[in-house]
Write a structure and sequence with these properties.
By secondary structure, the chain is α/β, with parallel strands linked by helices. Helix 2 packs across helix 6.
C-alpha cells in the first residue's frame, strides 16, 4: 500500500471518528432534559415560557417538561417550547414537604420515577435551602446527577424589570454557571396555534351565528383578582361603540365571571354582543386564533392572546405593567387609575381604547 493510500485511509478513519463523536455529543444533548415545576394558573405558566426557552438554549437541553395543573399547561406541548407536561395531581408532592430528617424513599419510588433523569430542575415550589428543596435534590439524584434551582414566583416591589427577567436572573445566579442573559424579547410569539385550533375556532364562531371568517374583537372582562377588573360598564360602552362602527364583537366569559355576575348582568352583556361561556382553554385558544383583536384585563387569557400574536389591548389598574406586561408582537397597554379602576367608569380610557382598536 502506497503512502498516499495510507494517508487517505487515515483521513477517512479520522473523519468517521469525528462524525461518531459529534453524533454521540448530539445524542447526549438530546438525552439531557429539564423540568420546570410551575403550580400557577395559565398566566403564570405563560410567563414561565421564556425561562424554559432560556434553559433549553443556554444549557443545550434536548427538551423541557413542565409539572403543573394540566388544565393550564396541557395545551403547551406542540404549541410552545414545552415538550411534555406532568400533572401535579399525579405526584405525591406533599411528601417532599416533610422535614428532611424524616424524608425517606423506597425502591422504585414513584417520586424517583417522576423527578429522576432530569439534568436540571427549576421549581417555583419551596424555598432555597428548605426541606422541599433538600428532599427534591435527594430524590432527583437517586437515579443520576441533577441540578435543582428554587425560584421565587413573585419579584420584590423594587424590581425594575419584567417578571420574565426576574426569573432568568434568579436562575443564572443560582445555577453556578457563567451563563449569559438573553436580550429581552417582548415581541416574541410564545405560543403557536395549530391548524386544528383555528378550525375549532371557526366552528365555534359558526355555532355562535357568526361568519367563521369574520375575525371578531374578543372582549374578556374578567381576571383572577376582582381589583384587576376594569368596571364592566366600561367594556359594555366600548362594545357599543365598536358595534356602531360595524366591528364584530364577541364577549368571552370564564368561570370567575359566571360565578361573580348575576343572570341580569349576563343578559345585559348578551344585549350588546354575542357571548360565549364555559369553554375549555383549548377552545378559547382556538377562538383567539381566529380573532382580529382582543381586549382584556391583566389576566391569564390576555397573556394567552398576546402570546399567540393577536392584537392585544391590555388594561392595567393596580398591577404594574412594566413587570406583568403580556409578551407578544402586538400588545398595547392602557393604564387606568388604580383607585377607581374597578369601581368607576372612565370615559377618557374608553375613548382611547376605542380609537386604538379602530386604528
Amino acid at each position: 500500500m502506497g503512502y498516499t493510500q495510507i494517508v487517505v485511509r487515515q483521513k477517512i478513519h479520522d473523519d468517521i471518528l469525528e462524525l461518531l463523536r459529534e453524533e454521540g455529543t448530539e445524542a447526549s444533548r438530546k438525552a439531557q432534559r429539564g423540568l420546570i415545576v410551575q403550580p400557577g394558573a395559565i398566566g403564570d405558566c405563560i410567563l414561565t415560557l421564556p425561562l424554559a426557552a432560556f434553559m433549553k438554549e443556554a444549557l443545550s437541553l434536548g427538551g423541557i417538561d413542565m409539572l403543573g395543573h394540566t388544565e393550564y399547561i396541557g395545551l403547551l406541548p406542540g404549541r410552545s417550547c414545552i415538550d411534555a407536561v406532568i400533572s401535579i395531581d399525579s405526584v405525591d408532592m406533599h411528601r417532599l414537604f416533610v422535614e428532611k430528617e424524616a424524608f425517606d424513599l423506597a425502591d422504585r419510588d414513584p417520586l424517583i420515577s417522576t423527578f429522576g433523569g432530569y439534568a436540571w430542575i427549576a421549581t417555583f415550589v419551596g424555598e432555597p435551602n428548605g426541606d422541599f428543596e433538600h428532599n427534591l435534590i435527594y430524590t432527583a439524584n437517586c437515579s443520576g446527577s441533577s441540578e435543582v434551582v428554587t425560584l421565587a414566583a413573585k419579584a420584590p416591589d423594587d424590581f425594575a424589570g419584567h417578571l420574565t427577567d426576574f426569573y432568568e436572573q434568579q436562575f443564572i445566579a443560582q445555577s453556578g454557571l457563567p451563563l449569559k442573559r438573553q436580550e429581552a424579547r417582548p415581541n416574541d410569539c410564545l405560543i403557536k396555534a395549530t391548524r386544528a385550533d383555528t378550525a375549532k375556532g371557526r366552528e365555534l364562531l359558526r355555532e355562535a351565528g357568526l361568519d367563521p371568517n369574520c375575525r371578531p374583537v374578543i372582549i374578556q372582562p374578567g381576571s383572577g383578582g376582582v381589583k384587576k377588573c376594569w368596571r364592566l360598564d366600561n367594556f359594555l360602552v366600548v362594545a357599543g361603540e365598536l358595534k356602531s362602527k360595524g366591528v364584530e364583537r364577541l364577549f368571552l366569559l370564564g368561570p370567575a365571571e359566571l360565578e361573580r355576575y348575576a343572570k341580569t348582568i349576563i343578559k345585559k352583556i348578551a344585549g350588546v354582543s354575542i357571548c360565549l361561556a364555559e369553554l375549555s382553554l383549548v377552545e378559547v385558544l382556538g377562538l383567539l386564533a381566529c380573532a382580529g383583536g382582543f381586549i382584556g384585563n391583566d389576566s391569564g387569557i390576555t397573556h394567552l392572546a398576546a402570546g399567540l400574536g393577536v392584537r392585544t389591548f391590555a388594561l392595567f389598574g393596580p398591577t404594574n405593567p412594566s413587570m406583568y406586561r403580556p409578551i407578544g408582537p402586538a400588545v398595547t397597554i392602557f393604564k387606568g387609575n388604580p383607585k377607581t379602576f374597578a369601581g368607576r367608569s372612565s370615559v377618557s380610557l374608553q375613548r382611547r381604547l376605542v380609537e386604538a382598536v379602530l386604528a
